[in-house]
């Protein structure tokens, strides 16, 4: 309780243009997204900044594109602007409108993937969540909290795909 966990979401982006891309992470009650200016994103392709992936809204970000493919194990360095993050349901102050169980939505604009090759190009997002001091997290028996990320796109956004559901185990010392 009170610990911060670092989450990593990896999404494969098809070649061509995909309109209005957003990634939503469905956090369970007991976890709170931290809108703490530490949400980072990378566009991973081996096409580089000139022939890789671009966004219609994240412009002039020199550290957004990185060289790699589906085996890239690095960490993003581009800080996603607050204007590209939504989903909080209220409350001001240090937690910036996010409550326990709110689902952060990361809006990436229209993505153009110009890296025409046989490997995969990725969007990688890393962010922090806080383990809240709520009854469900207060137990001598470890608690498992699972979440799912989904990618949405289109002129009228539709869900394209859900991720697997990794679990975070919460255990209080006895």
Topology (SSEs and partners):
Elements: E1 4-13, E2 16-26, E3 31-34, E4 40-45, H1 48-51, E5 53-55, E6 65-67, E7 78-79, E8 85-86, E9 105-113, E10 121-131, E11 143-146, E12 148-153, E13 158-162, E14 167-170
Notable characteristics:
single chain, 174 residues, mainly beta, elongated
Structural account:
The protein is an all-beta fold and 174 residues long. It has one helix at 48-51, and strands at residues 4-13, 16-26, 31-34, 40-45, 53-55, 65-67, 78-79, 85-86, 105-113, 121-131, 143-146, 148-153, 158-162, 167-170. It has one helix and 14 strands; from the N terminus they run ββββαββββββββββ. Strands 1, 3, 4, 6, 7 and 10 form a six-stranded mixed β-sheet that branches. A hairpin with a 4-residue loop joins strand 12 (148-153) and strand 13 (158-162). The longest helix has 4 residues, at 48-51. 30% of the residues are buried.
Offer a quick outline of the entry.
The chain is mainly beta and 174 residues long. The protein has one helix and 14 strands, in the order ββββαββββββββββ.
